[in-house]
Backbone:
């Protein structure tokens, strides 16, 4: 008889975690997915079922939850993102690396079936080809966040190889969503812009008008995550983290798209330290390996994303969220 899949999400209270929890519960059942986060309370997650406070650095507690809850898979989402990481690089190193190394050792000891750990386009740096960045290429990240993602990818590949574990990951582009706010990234402007537009306010962008970055709507990112985790192991030729992509745009192009819905919308530009981060990242990504290995295909383009964002933010505010 096959055993029940029981999932622990660490860092579930952020932009990706809330939506991933909803999707995984749909697939595996509410009682088989336990969302946890450093935050003592999380009203949104608590309103949907069980929630537990858990520090990703607390290996003893993680091991004990794996035992008592009979956890078979862990999704580790706790992290310090690019912009916050450049404000406090030692913190980014400690949290991003400490939590991963902790979990890999626990996963090895407890013989977890699978671990998910996300990487980012931030692994790439200024020496990487910026257009159609290949899966395998020069990787010399310039931010502490990118350095932790690159080191983390290599750690995952090492544990996969040495200890015959099953650790999977995606290099997400900037993710655009409305259910849970973003947590300190360079691509966050592409979410904040909607809230300002709907409030009838000017949006002051911290990136220059022609800064192109790869982006994706959250529904596609969640579907990609679950498809990767469901894919047969023998199909996965990449042992660290897969490139995935949807579309790229600049702040100016996003503003033009928003004006189709709100003609009076205005944008101004006041680039800050995040401009350097954005300029060190690719402008577009080649994700053909993911498309070949596990049939990844994005569904949302820029205009569909903008429509879904306006509809989603309005429905959340109508529901009083
Ligand atoms: P987020 O900042 O929105 O959420 C991270 C969550 O981790 C927060 O709820 C935070 O409270 C929690 N956390 C922080 N320290 C913790 C700790 N010590 N113990 C437990 N929880 C802790 O981030 P996100 O956007 O949901 O990103 C999740 C993962 O995906 C990260 O690894 C991030 O690098 C990666 N990623 C995100 C994006 C994106 O655009 N959102 C893009 C590429 C990669
Ligand atoms: C960030 O901007 O830090 C994240 C990412 C692309 O990793 N959104």
Residues:
């Amino acid at each position: 008889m096959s055993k029940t899949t029981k999932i622990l999400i660490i860092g579930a209270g952020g932009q990706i975690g809330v939506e991933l929890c909803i999707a995984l519960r749909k697939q595996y059942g509410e009682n088989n997915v336990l969302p946890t986060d450093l935050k003592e309370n999380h009203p949104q997650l608590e309103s949907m079922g069980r929630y537990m406070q858990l520090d990703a650095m607390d290996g003893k507690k993680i091991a004990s939850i794996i035992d008592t809850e009979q956890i078979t898979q862990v999704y580790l989402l706790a992290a310090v993102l690019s912009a916050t990481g450049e404000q406090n690089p030692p913190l980014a190193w400690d949290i991003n690396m400490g939590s991963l190394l902790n979990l890999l050792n626990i996963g090895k000891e407890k013989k977890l079936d699978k671990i998910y750990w996300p990487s980012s386009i931030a692994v790439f740096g200024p020496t990487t080809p910026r257009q159609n960045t290949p899966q395998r290429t020069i990787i010399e990240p310039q931010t502490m966040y990118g350095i932790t993602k690159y080191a983390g990818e290599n750690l995952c590949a090492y544990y996969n190889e040495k200890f015959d574990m099953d650790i999977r990951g995606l290099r997400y582009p900037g993710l655009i969503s409305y259910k849970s706010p973003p947590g300190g990234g360079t691509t966050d402007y592409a979410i904040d812009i909607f809230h300002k537009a709907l409030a009838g306010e000017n949006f002051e962008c911290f990136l220059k008008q022609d800064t192109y970055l790869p982006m994706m709507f959250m529904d596609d990112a969640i579907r990609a995550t679950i498809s990767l985790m469901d894919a047969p192991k023998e199909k996965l030729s990449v042992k660290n983290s897969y490139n995935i992509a949807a579309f790229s745009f600049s702040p100016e192009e996003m503003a033009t798209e928003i004006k189709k819905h709100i003609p009076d919308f205005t944008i101004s530009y006041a680039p800050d330290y995040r401009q350097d981060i954005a300029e060190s990242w690719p402008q577009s990504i080649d994700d053909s390996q993911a498309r070949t290995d596990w049939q990844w295909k994005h569904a949302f383009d820029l205009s569909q994303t903008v429509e879904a964002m306006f509809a989603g933010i309005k429905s959340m505010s109508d529901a009083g969220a």
Remarks:
- The longest strand covers residues 33-37.
- Residues 36 and 303 are 34 Å apart (CA to CA).
- DSSP finds twelve helices and 14 strands in the chain.
- The chain has a mean pLDDT of 97.
